[in-house]
Design brief:
Layout (H helix, E strand, L loop, with lengths): L17 E4 L3 H14 L3 E5 L7 H5 L4 E6 L5 H6 L7 E4 L4 H14 L4 E5 L3 H8 L5 E4 L1 H13 L5 E4 L2 E7 L9 E7 L8 E2 L8 H10 L70 E8 L9 H12 L6 H25 L2 H12 L8 H6 L8 H31 L16 E4 L3 H12 L4 E5 L6 H7 L4 E3 L4 H7 L7 E4 L4 H14 L4 E5 L3 H10 L3 E4 L1 H13 L3 E8 L2 E9 L11 H5 L4 E7 L7 E2 L13 E6 L1 H15 L1
Parallel strand pairs: 1-2, 1-4, 2-3, 4-5, 5-6, 12-13, 12-15, 13-14, 15-16, 16-17
Antiparallel strand pairs: 7-8, 8-11, 9-10, 9-11, 18-19, 19-22, 20-21, 20-22
Helix pairs in contact: 1-18, 1-20, 6-13, 6-18, 9-10, 9-12, 10-12, 13-14, 15-16
Length: 651
């Protein structure tokens, strides 16, 4: 560690800049977001310029300066010109350290926008009230839904006004989609994906028809449009434009997609529709769709009962123990049959057998036997059967006691329990850091059985999952052995979310070797690494926490509210809610102005004088007024453009 304060402070006084405190992966992605998409000057404060992602951050062309301080102190804040900065992002350090730094920054600059990372979201909400202009975000909470959904093989969703938006691919796309969000998808080359491809203007169809047929041109029989899948002409708005949104003509297989009220298929004519994708050409696409309710993973009570019964068998895993218990059980059943045969009374036989099994039966007295008044009615063989049952009861009693002690004492020892022999259809979560804890908690809340793996006994997530009764496999042994203990053979998926890419990849490969059918979800930072991962493994997915969380932090730093992020393979789509305030650059813009430059789709509108959120509002010419709210699906650059428009207009 170099001496405190050593670094490269700005050569000239700098103002109207943004400060990022941290040198981790999230800080790296956040700086990239700010310099590439928002094009703002950024000063980075790191603890050590030679560790983590600090060297890569220093190489970014848009970074004004990288300053090194061991902690975010008053001196460090002055060194990065906190008094003239527009925003501050605290994305490293503990919750307590970030709270202290946020309050100190506000004392230096009361108007600065502060975004700080907090694992304890409830505490973060309370701290927000102490700040004039601050927001507390959790990177792990932002990214965890994507990991959990990927493990279950279903799309991640973002809730907006009771509707759950999700991404559907190819054959899963339905006619009631909201909009197409990506095309040219090639899973072998993720760089070819186009997010929110360009749209044709809504009036392009009618201009083309007018040019082709003229004023007296023929009308196709039935009023059909050339190349259209529907026989009805699209309705016209009062201004003569179509009231529905047009799909881009470059979409690979749109000629076979039925027309819908959300995005009709463009017609043929001078603008030919592409046919199905040829072999070797990218032909996939993705669309934004709505689920009415968030799907859960219900597990019927019969399966749960079976798991409980199998789980009880973990006390009998020794072969010798099983042999002794099975022999004793067979002897008890045989003796019970003898008693029933001799007495012909099933109820009395059960009664006396249970007493004998507990060692509480009264033996016959010798004088009673001689007088013929003994309690037993079956003579010698009844007495033999009762003795057998009593002796076998001696065998069962210690086992029952051990089970009771184990069940009652496991929670008091403060140690997480191991997965039972009856664990089935579960998800294995490797790593109980911030992200792993969030993923395990969310899966558990959805009713999915979870088993966690952690090598560090001091990991912060162990106590959290233990409180939920989630089994944890602990130890630093080989992954093969640990996965066997986690019952990999019976699992449905493995989620590797430790902080090291190599460790996550090792866990995924070991899991696939031990169970070729298991689904693997891996946390990877490097895009090239992830691309090779997709090419190598089937039934697999990779996610990057920083890639999912950084756009939300950047948008929050600019005063935008991102409701959630949706993954399009390794790319990110943001769902944001924007409020048109007095003086905002959004005033007077319509859907054409917002969407035509690309990177943005307006999916819902709430007007200032109407409380209902209107989805796919058809009037694309209505201009925004103060108090209106819009919900957009946007790329990172698209959302940054909206922010730039607002800043320029305000300036």
């Amino acid at each position: 560690m170099t001496s405190e304060g050593w670094g490269t402070p700005p050569v000239e006084p700098i103002s109207q800049h943004y400060i990022v405190c941290g040198g981790n992966a999230l800080a790296h992605r956040l700086v990239l977001e700010l310099v590439e998409h928002y094009e703002v000057p950024v000063v980075v404060l790191v603890a050590d310029r030679t560790r983590d992602h600090a060297p890569q951050i220093e190489q970014l062309s848009g970074v004004a300066a990288v300053v090194e301080y061991s902690s975010v102190t008053e001196e460090a804040l002055r060194a990065v010109s906190i008094g003239t900065a527009r925003g501050l992002a605290l994305v490293e350090g503990s919750d307590q350290e970030n709270i202290h730094a946020a309050l100190s920054a506000q004392n230096h600059n009361p108007d600065i926008r502060i975004v700080f990372r907090m694992f304890n979201q409830r505490l973060g909400e309370n701290i927000e009230r102490l700040l004039r202009n601050g927001a507390a975000l959790s990177g792990s909470a932002t990214a965890a839904p994507a990991f959990a959904s990927a493990a279950l093989g279903r799309p991640n969703s973002v809730e907006i006004e009771g509707r759950y938006l999700h991404i559907a691919f190819d054959d899963d796309i339905t006619s009631d989609r909201i909009c197409v969000v990506a095309d040219q998808i090639d899973r072998q080359d993720l760089g070819r994906i186009r997010l929110l491809p360009e749209q044709q203007g809504d009036s392009a169809e009618f201009v083309r028809l007018a040019a082709e047929f003229g004023d007296q041109g023929p009308i196709r029989p039935g009023g059909t449009r050339p190349g259209s899948a529907s026989s009805a002409e699209p309705a016209l708005a009062a201004d003569g434009e179509s009231t529905t949104e047009q799909e881009p003509s470059t979409e690979p297989d749109s000629s076979t997609e039925p027309e819908s009220s959300a995005e009709p298929v463009p017609s043929g004519g001078p603008v030919p529709l592409p046919g199905p994708a040829q072999e070797g050409e990218p032909g996939g696409r993705a669309a934004l769709q709505v689920l009415r309710i968030e799907p859960r993973e219900p597990i019927d009570w019969m399966r749960r009962l079976r798991w409980r019964l199998l789980d009880t068998m973990r006390f009998f895993t020794s072969a010798r123990m099983r042999l002794v218990l099975l022999t004793a059980l067979a002897a008890v059943l045989l003796a019970f049959g003898v008693l029933w045969y001799l007495n012909r009374n099933f109820g009395w036989t059960v009664y006396i057998a249970l007493l004998d099994l507990a060692g509480a039966a009264q033996p016959d007295q010798l004088s009673d036997v001689a007088a013929g008044t003994g309690a037993g009615t079956g003579g010698f063989w009844q007495r033999v059967a009762q003795v057998v049952i009593t002796i076998c009861g001696i065998t069962f009693a210690p086992v029952a006691t051990a089970i009771a002690v184990e069940v009652l004492g496991s929670g008091r020892r403060g140690q997480p329990r191991n997965p039972g022999a009856g664990t089935r259809d579960h998800v294995i979560v490797v790593g109980l850091g911030n992200v792993g804890t969030r993923v395990a908690t969310q899966l558990h809340a959805m009713g999915v059985p979870v088993v966690c793996m952690e090598r560090d006994p001091q990991a912060r997530g162990i106590a959290a999952v233990r409180a939920l009764g989630i089994p944890v496999v602990m130890g630093d042994g080989p992954f093969e052995q640990q996965l066997r203990r986690a019952r990999l053979k019976h699992s449905r998926a493995l989620v590797a979310v430790s902080g090291d890419d190599a460790t996550n990849l090792e866990a995924a490969l070991e899991a696939r070797h031990g169970n070729p059918e298991v689904r693997v979800v891996v946390r990877l930072f490097e895009d090239d690494f992830a691309s090779h991962f997709y090419k190598t493994l089937d039934n697999a997915a990779s996610r990057s926490v920083s890639y999912l969380a950084a756009p939300a932090f950047a948008a929050a730093l600019m005063g935008r509210e991102v409701r959630g992020t949706l993954s399009v393979l390794r790319h990110v789509l943001l769902i944001a809610e924007l409020t048109v305030e007095d003086g905002s650059g959004l005033i007077g813009l319509n859907r054409h102005d917002l969407e035509d430059p690309g990177g943005v789709r307006v999916i819902a509108v709430r007007f200032a004088h109407g409380g209902q959120l209107q989805w796919n509002f058809p009037d694309r010419t209505r201009r925004l007024a103060p108090g209106d709210q819009i919900v957009v699906a946007a790329t990172r650059s698209g959302l940054a453009r909206l922010n730039t428009v607002a800043v320029e207009e305000q300036g």
